[in-house]
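Appendix B, Record 12. Input sequence as logged:
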Amino acid sequence: DNISPANRVNDYAIGTALNILSNCAGRKYVCPVGGHANFLVTNIILVGGSSIGKSLYTELFPQIQASVPDTSPISLNRIPREQTFATRTFAELMANPSYHSVQLFYPEFGLALGSGLRMNPNNPDNFQKALMDASTKRKLGGILTGIKRANADNDVKTVSEPCYSILGDSTQELILDNTRKQDFSSGFLPRFLFIPNYERAEFAKPEKV
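Logged structural output:
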């Protein structure tokens, strides 16, 4: 109670920090799971009402990136942040050997569920399917095949050891309105950590990073 609200570590701060740190770990660190060495990347969605302060946290990462010099050993600038539903763009980013990881960012995840992230089994280039395929290969030695990468011949290429995370925010209503049974049965939504915060998330930007 003696700590001011602006200095308290809330659930949004913890979730955002986990996502940022997992991207920094990228392909450099792994966790043993079921005989595999999985990358430590996270899929985190901040959930709360409108004007509660979610974007103050989801927009924190690019602010940190801008304040860290290129010579920093953390190499935060080697983590691209992309809002896309294009499998080719997704594959090209993950295939870049200079990147630690790729952060996919969706500022309104509920709306994305009803559009670009909606599963369409009749579309072989469906983005949710690409995410699911890539998630099972986010490990040491993982090879992602059958995902289109942009090139002159429009060939299907492979991506070695794909590594990505997802960060976003949404109101609970939009998530519920756009969620279908298949999003759970396919295993897609169970791969996310949804973090609720029903009070306004007070935030004070530190003077130094």
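The radius of gyration is 18 Å.
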